[in-house]
Design brief:
Elements lengths: L14 H52 L4 E5 L4 E4 L1 H7 L3 H4 L13 H12 L5 E8 L6 E11 L9 E8 L7
Antiparallel strand pairs: 1-2, 1-5, 3-4, 4-5
């Protein structure tokens, strides 16, 4: 064991004290080197995993964006969080014009109560539900009759909110369901 040495002691530390201190420091540095090496390896593994996740995310984002049928992701209150290009074409609006707006506001007023009831049913079941709905087109160009398939997805991490995934097809596209 290392004894406490008084710096004002004229005899100072003994050779044994210095040798023991040197061995302790040597072991400490070896432990630090091992810890640093382990952290470097973990950091490299995390970097590789991050690159893989980013590549996968890019692939799925591209698939989502280029899908030939409209996809919309909303909050359970129907506020739009993501839309793909086909949804922008269907609604005749840009992504910026659709972002954060309630999907409900694109439903004709007289059909909103039924729409809200269907959304509530979708929020209470783990099974995707399908129902007909009309969406108003921009500029008062009438409505387009669609069928929507809506699925609830719980938040991926604790405290994360659930979202609704919407697959939309014009009524003439029955083969999509």
């Amino acid at each position: 064991t290392l004894r406490r040495v008084n710096v004002n002691d004229p005899n100072g530390p003994t050779a044994a004290d210095l040798d023991l201190a040197a061995r302790i420091l040597h072991c400490t540095f070896e432990n630090l080197d091992r810890a640093v090496e382990k952290l470097v390896m973990q950091n490299e593994a995390l970097f590789r995993a991050r690159v893989e996740v980013e590549e996968s995310t890019a692939i799925f984002r591209d698939l989502f964006e280029r899908a030939p049928f409209p996809y919309v992701i909303t909050t359970t209150a129907t506020h739009i969080t993501y839309v793909n290009d086909a949804a922008c074409t269907l609604f005749r609006r840009s992504k910026n014009a659709l972002a954060r707006k309630p999907l409900t506001c694109f439903v004709p007023i007289k059909e909103r109560p039924a729409f809200r009831d269907a959304v509530l049913r979708s929020c209470t079941t783990p099974v995707a539900t399908t129902w007909p709905v009309a969406f108003a087109l921009s500029g008062g160009d009438g409505v387009v009759r669609c069928r929507v398939r809506v699925g609830l997805v719980e938040g991926q991490s604790p405290g994360a909110p659930a979202v609704l995934y919407w697959n939309i097809a014009e009524e003439t596209d029955e083969d999509l369901f």
